[in-house]
Amino acid sequence: MRAAKLLAVAVALTALLGGCSHASEGAKKLTAPSKKPAPPSYGSQLSYQDNKYQNSRVRRGADNTYVCSYHEIYQIDAQGAVKVLVSMPDTQLYGLRLYREDLLLFTSRDMTPRGDALFALGFWSCDLHTGALQQQPFFPQYYEIIGDVLYTAEGGQDMLRANGADTYSLPDLKPLKNGVVCPLSAVYTGLGALDLDSGIYAAAENHEVLGYEPQVTVRQDIVLSQLGGGESQHICTYTGTMYDGWLATHRGVYYQQADALWVADYQSKDPVQLCAKLPEGMRLFTYDENWLYLIDSDSYQTMARVHSQTGRIETLPFTVKDDPFASPLDTCGGYLYFTGPDDLLYRCPQSDPSAIQVEPFDG
């Protein structure tokens, strides 16, 4: 009986296998479905940078911090000791950048005692070891350092583009004949660029004008991109006036919409409202590890800050100078540095903006 059952099972298996074999003849082989490449996630590569590209008066090197006042460049070591590296009493200094063992900076000298707005402009390199200055034979209206290349621009503040002789190799500052486009949006307005050393930048794209009254209203997409091309990572879309600001930070993109402040985390699809009511007339300006700084868009002199995680708002207890050449407030090394209406440079701890010191910060 058992032998008969085993025989029946064997016959059934033979028929089944034979049928399968027969059915598969001439049939197409199945292939695994193709997988779409995962979208880029540049935000996960970002970390807080003390040397933000909005800064124009403060640079942090490996051992020292360099701070540019109107007439001096100060070197501050890790213990807080301050020394004057450069002094040019009759010349305004600004636009500070750091490349290895050299600082690059702009100078402006008023040539008309009656104030007819005639200036002698200069572009200089400064040796960090000796303080020796060397004037360069060209003057870029704006410039940025990425890797070993100096990118310059002669146009406005919307896009920094460089080609031909507008691109220079570092450290020799020789013109590059085959320069590349450097697609950095709003670098000098304190609104856009991110960690350029790792090749990541933020930009507002696909502007759509929705109305002109009472102010120009636009719809924008904020994206992260990689220098050299590649797919962009879409972060958020927002609608606001041309005076509403946005900041791409290591935590996410913060943007103003109506009177509210929103944050779009790099890993999330849905922006979250951080605070419902910003101080009237204020727009986003710069940031540090924990705070977003706002400046009055009319006077360009009063400032406030919003905690980047709690939304708490504080008015800063000082007034800054409306400076057409450089950022009136920069952050670095745990301090806020700002130019006062008296043209002197001040600083205060980020943790206590009321503890204000005046240059040279040694008192």
Automatic annotation (TrEMBL):
SUPFAM superfamilies attached to this UniProt entry: Tricorn protease N-terminal domain
Q: Which domain of life is it from?
A: Bacteria
Secretion signal, residue range per the UniProt entry: 1-23
Q: What is this protein called?
A: DUF5050 domain-containing protein
Which terms are listed as keywords in the entry? Signal
Task: Enumerate the residue ranges of region (Disordered).
Answer: 28-47
